[in-house]
User: What shape does this take?
Amino acid sequence: MADMLVDGRRVELRDGDTVLEAARRAGARIPTLCYDPRLEPGGSCRLCLVEVEGIGWPVPSCAYPASEAMAVRTRSDALHRFRRDLLDLVLSEQPDGECPRCTQIGPCELHLLAVEYGAWGGRFSGAQSGARADDGNPFILRDYSRCIYCYRCTRVCNEVEQAHAIVPGGRGFDSRITTLLNRGLMDTSCTFCGQCINTCPTGA
Ligand code: FES
Assistant: This one.
């Protein structure tokens, strides 16, 4: 049976394991934002970076295949600083004031991690992207000011629901989750299943 070391602990590998999956089985706590176990790895948020012996730079554990005799470190001062800096950057685009998801439903993944890493947006404050997009449908209000562009919503819509109703659009500060030809959701293949809301790690 192939195995690898995670923070000095041996873990048996399963077919197709990523480093993240094997490390979590070994009890490691690795932060993620763009990861959803139901989806193909997105690899965009970079919060899940870990150090692998013999590789000179951190690798995204959610997208990196685990292999025999690998030695992985999931905690170090450098990784902690790196993750906090990333969270600072993400938070710098979040609007001031209470997060509606945190106050109305329960802590969102982003703000739980912000507390854990002591991150805040003020360090990189500047331009912000996004606004609310009310297309008149009675079910879903999209708030791009809370969106972190992890694309879990578009991926779950495509890969799990196979509805292909929402797509990434725009670039930079104009990035947004939209629909083909920017139609309202009622005029798309959206079934209002709620999977996009369910997977969202913020209040977007
Ligand atoms: Fe791995 Fe986002 S969780 S890059």
In short: The chain has a mean pLDDT of 94. The beta strands are 3-6, 9-12, 49-52, 59-60, 71-73, 132-133, 142-143, 167-169, 176-178. The radius of gyration is 18 Å.
